[in-house]
Fold each of these.
Amino acid sequence: MVPYLTEEAFFATLPYISRWSRAQVVFDYVNAPSSLTGAARTAHEALATRVAAAGEPFRNFLDTETLHARLEALGLRVIEDVGPKQIAARFSPEHVPHVQERGGHILRAATAAFA
């Protein structure tokens, strides 16, 4: 649910999690709409409009490489980052050729002691 948090709130929580010797965290995040093109950007904008109308606007977009670096700097190792193509492959294989690398992700990270 990271897209609904402010960037400050999200990154303020991670140091607490990373202090545990056996910790892991799983969350979803979204790349910035400006990194999307064509139909993916249109779909994202439509979704953003719907969730904002429901009172839950997107507040946070993350760059994958920057996020991984920040997690690792906190002592959290990225174990798995499932991006749009991998999600499509699992749940809608027929759409994989049309899915971009940027978009929604599900990420699992853990302290080195846990992994």
Amino acid sequence: MTQNSGGIDKILRIVVGLVLIVLTVMGVLPVWGYIGIVPLATGLMGWCPLYTVLGINTCPMKKTD
């Protein structure tokens, strides 16, 4: 798995995932809020399987000499 999620993308995924999970634990959202595990996991890994299928890469390219 090569990383295909960039810095801002990863941060947004982690924040959205945590917010969904916290709101569900607090009882604000129903059980479906645990779907926040998906963006949280993809943000922490830096790899999104959907991005791979769609050919998207928000990770900055590394220069090679």
Amino acid sequence: MTNFSLKAYVKTSSNAAPLAVFRVFFGLLMLISIIRFAANGWINKLYIQPDFFFSYYGFEWVRPLGDFTYILFVICGLSALFVSLGYQYRFSIITFFLSFTYIELMDKTTYLNHYYFISILSFLLIFLPAHAYFSIDALKNEHLRSQKVPAWTIDSVKLLIMMVYFYAGLAKLNSDWLIEAMPLQIWLPAKYSLPLLGDFLQQQWTHYAFSWAGAIYDLTIPFLLIMKRTRILAFVLVVIFHALTRVLFPIGMFPYIMIVNALIFFDAGLHNKILSFISRLLKISKQKFDNAKVYSFPSAWVKKASMGVITLFFVFQLLFPFRYLLYPGELFWNEEGFRFSWRVMLIEKAGYANFKVVNPDNGNRFYVDNTQFLTRFQEKQMSTQADFILEYAHYLEDHYTKQGLRNPKIYVESFVALNGRRSRPYINPDTDLTKIKPSLQHKTWILPFDDEIKGL
């Protein structure tokens, strides 16, 4: 019975308008994001000025391209525009995925959950016929032009959005967030200058209300969006939630992206109205795209391959956030398995890392001025994350070796304060970091966390 239902579902088709609207807005928002990034001078500040860049394990070869980095952003922006227009869609979305992901991987310092979300979403879109309707490709190619697409192509986008929310909600089920209202107790009072909200954000009950509301929102909004009876209410909540986060926290375009993404949960009627409005605005005929045709993949093997890749994609996305269970110790402290797991804004860390370089031949030692090698932003990120500290230590080893110091030993004296706790030692100060090779193994040289954070 289950197999029969699955087979029937795979053959089900839906109006293509939601996928077309999603493509149009996705590309447009990505173009705006790239322009905004360049206009704020962040390309130069983050990828041209620094002398050193922190890399992801396995992607050490990904580096900024000097002045050619500007060209990379131009390519990314143009491909986003072409995705929105549906022009040479498959090539454009692949180009966007590759260029955006390369930008994301250039420096681990700039890691954000929503950058990862854009990368995996653009990867998913490679295998979906988002250009089959209301696109330049469909206008030029009658065989491609289809008013209906397989239902699973739209539902796969919905599923990814639902997973992001739900996993973010699961991550909030911990004692720091729910019992201590951390780190909101640190962040919200700092917004005292906000009109109307400033005084309100000083109250402790507000911090708890925001913490619990955030967890409940993330855990329930996927189901409220998927159900027709609660969809409008859910969308109102999406707008309110992300408008608040945009006011309270500097998270760029992400709130707008999630608000627009939520539209895909609505029925095709709304999306056809949106496309009709765009048609009138641009003085083009929407009727040219209307037919009774259901999109058909170029061949049976392409369809099977696409469905296979998407299936593996979701299996990976379901399991990967739980890799932290493979590591002992406190996740928020050692952050092993923390990234790429939708743990959004759960920790506030502050600390410092003082590196000591020792000459093994005579025992002479000196301390490193980190500002000679790192930007303030890089130093802030490095001082509280063990993999950053190790990579920087190896960079210092190479630097001083080139300066004539043979086989230097490098130690770090580091202290970190987590979610309002008192600062405590972070890295074993007796560990020569030059002897440790970067790997995915548990970092035994991180000192134990003498507290307990209960929960997932």
Amino acid sequence: MIRINHNLTLPDSDLEESFMRASGPGGQNVNKVSTAVELRFNVAGCDVLMESVRARLVKLAGSRMTLDGILIIQADSHRTQAMNRADAAKRLADMVRKALIAPKRRVATRPGKAATERRLVSKGVRGDVKQGRKKPLAD
């Protein structure tokens, strides 16, 4: 189980880990031991997440999300399998935490009267500068 916060935990039934040989640090160990971790999280089948959180998580995951609704996280930056497992779990927990935060709704506002006036004055000044660059008319 992966703990997200004090009242949300992802169940093991929605998680699946597989191990493979990794590239990167490890010397000869890289060729012999399966230290890389592929963590699969079934977002579509997870009952503990609300629908809005699921939608935000799918958006955050991007190309890491399969068409079946499974989020795939690969971790192979460390030399040991245990560290890679912890890294994958941490990255998944961080992503779910980020998805839990609902974006603030934008409140439409209009510029004030003084701001509109300043804008129009600056446009006039700019137009005068450009007019001053023209060749004078021949009389």
